[in-house]
Amino acid sequence: CYRENILKTAKALVEDTKLLVSGAASSQDKLAQAAQSSANTITQLAEVVKLGAASLGSDDPETQVVLINAIKDVAKALSDLISATKGAASKPADDPSMYQLKGAAKVMVTNVTSLLKTVKAVEDEATRGTRALEATIEYIKQELTVFQSSEVPEKTSSPEESIRMTKGITMATAKAVAAGNSCRQEDVIATANLSRKAVADMLTACKQASYHPDVSEEVRERALRFGTECTLGYLELLEHVLLV
């Protein structure tokens, strides 16, 4: 029942995505209507996903987290898409903002597809761990793209904060190795959830610290490079766990 509702609402959201993209080239009224429609649809989708997560029961919290993370990714992608649509409104077809819009729409569709795959996998215990890991790998890749962009973080943090956040990577690495050895679905799902947070926190802290006023251009470049290399290394580890 929940799966059917999620599928139906997700399809409606994909249609809203198309309207948002086409709305950038049309009137402000149409754009506003498309934005309002997508906001309503994402609210409905979040509700049915939460109901679906609740139906799993409290004895499987890690899988519930996988579902909630999937809808959070869709909501974030929609927010980014609406921002990109506003930036591209009334601009010519070859304007850079139009390419950003197309990129945001692609991420949006990717995340909706990922949500649907996750919902399907939840019904099959044998594939839950694999799917959770695939979704986490996709999420980390998207976070790395944001990290590598030229966008300056809204706030800065101390280098100490960045160092503190690397401890999460150490813990997640140990968990990933253990999951690769045990091959138990619950261990793999827990690894996927922990990895997602650990890498995202590390990337945020690293970028914020690299833009601290006391940091030189050379040190910033090194910090950003090592943040990227750490993430790529961790992705390789998760790919190995997935293969196992």
Automatic annotation (TrEMBL):
<dbReference type="GO" id="GO:0030036">
    <property type="term" value="P:actin cytoskeleton organization"/>
</dbReference>
<dbReference type="Pfam" id="PF21896">
    <property type="entry name" value="Talin_IBS2B"/>
</dbReference>
<dbReference type="InterPro" id="IPR054082">
    <property type="entry name" value="Talin_IBS2B"/>
</dbReference>
<feature type="domain" description="Talin IBS2B">
    <location>
        <begin position="8"/>
        <end position="119"/>
    </location>
</feature>
<dbReference type="GO" id="GO:0005925">
    <property type="term" value="C:focal adhesion"/>
</dbReference>
<protein>
    <submittedName>
        <fullName>TLN2 protein</fullName>
    </submittedName>
</protein>
<dbReference type="GO" id="GO:0005737">
    <property type="term" value="C:cytoplasm"/>
</dbReference>
<dbReference type="InterPro" id="IPR036723">
    <property type="entry name" value="Alpha-catenin/vinculin-like_sf"/>
</dbReference>
<dbReference type="GO" id="GO:0005886">
    <property type="term" value="C:plasma membrane"/>
</dbReference>
<feature type="domain" description="Talin IBS2B">
    <location>
        <begin position="129"/>
        <end position="241"/>
    </location>
</feature>
<dbReference type="GO" id="GO:0051015">
    <property type="term" value="F:actin filament binding"/>
</dbReference>
<keyword id="KW-0963">Cytoplasm</keyword>
<dbReference type="GO" id="GO:0005178">
    <property type="term" value="F:integrin binding"/>
</dbReference>
<dbReference type="GO" id="GO:0098609">
    <property type="term" value="P:cell-cell adhesion"/>
</dbReference>
